[in-house]
Specification:
The chain is an all-alpha fold. The protein has two helices and no strands. This is CCHC-type domain-containing protein.
């Protein structure tokens, strides 16, 4: 325990004295060429991985949008041309 307490005291003595609070921002002396320089945000790079989906999150009880199936042969809805009974030919 004595060695541990000693190392903690040495650590704290090195940390506490090194940081001092900054003065008030109104008292800072900033050179004019730095004040006139325009600061731009960094260039955004494309992140690795799959991009996030832009779809809106559905609520718990919200139903999914279902598209109506229409037949390309007869034009009615509810079936496709494979199951169309209107233009089937039986031999």
């Amino acid at each position: 325990m004595q060695i541990n307490n000693f190392s903690i005291l040495i650590h704290h003595s090195g940390c506490w004295d090194s940081s001092e609070p900054l003065p008030c921002e109104s008292t800072w002396n900033i050179p004019l060429h730095i004040l006139e320089e325009e600061m731009l945000p960094p260039i955004a790079r494309k992140q690795p991985g799959r991009p996030p989906s832009n779809d809106r999150k559905k609520e718990f009880n919200e139903e999914k949008y279902k598209s109506k199936v229409t037949c390309s042969k007869c034009g009615t809805s509810g079936h496709n041309k494979k199951t169309c009974l209107k233009f089937t030919y039986h031999n």
